[in-house]
What we know:
Layout: E1 2-8, E2 37-47, E3 53-65, H1 66-72, E4 78-79, E5 85-87, H2 99-109, E6 119-123, E7 126-127, E8 135-141, E9 147-155, E10 161-167, E11 173-178, E12 192-202, E13 205-216, E14 219-232, H3 235-244, H4 248-265, E15 281-282
Parallel strand pairs: 4-5, 10-15
Antiparallel strand pairs: 1-11, 2-3, 2-14, 3-6, 5-7, 6-8, 8-9, 9-10, 11-12, 12-13, 13-14
Amino acid sequence: MITPATTAWTPSAPAGAAEPVVRGGALPSVKSVDAPLLGFGQVRHTRLKPARNAFAYPTYFLMLPLRSMQARGSGALVRNRRAALSFFDSDHGDGRADCVSWLDELLLSEGIADATGELWLHTYPRIFGHTFKPVSFWYCHRPDGSLRAIVVEVNNTFGERHCYLLDHPHYGQELSADKVFHVSPFCTVEGRYRFRFMRIQNDGLQKTVARIDYDDAGGPLLETSVGGTLVALTPASLRRALWRYPAMTFGVVARIHWQAFRLWCKRIPFVRKPAPPKSFVTR
Length: 283
């Protein structure tokens, strides 16, 4: 079950790093930018027990207004064709060629009929045809630009996928969801996630932050976040991303296995993979 928390979020970050905060007024309207964006930032991860393990890696990601892209095209971004950096609809949902139709069907099946405004997707691209997306975030808006739902799409290294549907969210609000999907062999399938999302403007720059913390039966276990500064997705910004991080998606998988090896060296108990949940969506 997913429920909104009763307290507001005070921004904080794992491993002692500060998250960006809102300054100077309201959040930017989602209608103000309707072209694909590229985010440059960091992934942060801290395990708190039984042995501490923390890391932070530079990263970049796509932030895509998919309904606008259906109407106006994808600009400099190559879509559904092989390229050095590209986006494939089939990497999401049930693998169909149009991920927007999949998401619309998912929302309707869950009784959400008013998320017909912009769909912003925060996700990793394919790099030289390869991708692994540990988590993607779908920000689903009403026609007036207000946030209606967030779908957190999670993939594990066993080729399985699951979605957590957050109903009636607000930027800056904490939401919680029971953990039902196996991700790490060093975590059991129990407890709950705590989610916080920000889409902010700070000194003229747009930023996005998604934070997922995990509590097991004994309390807080993991603190994670991904965020960055958003820039227009142009040939120049794509070249910058590829030049700075030419093997970014390969590095995601390599780092997952390297951190798993570190946990094994610290004698963190190994958890055998359970069967996936019967339902594809946790509401």
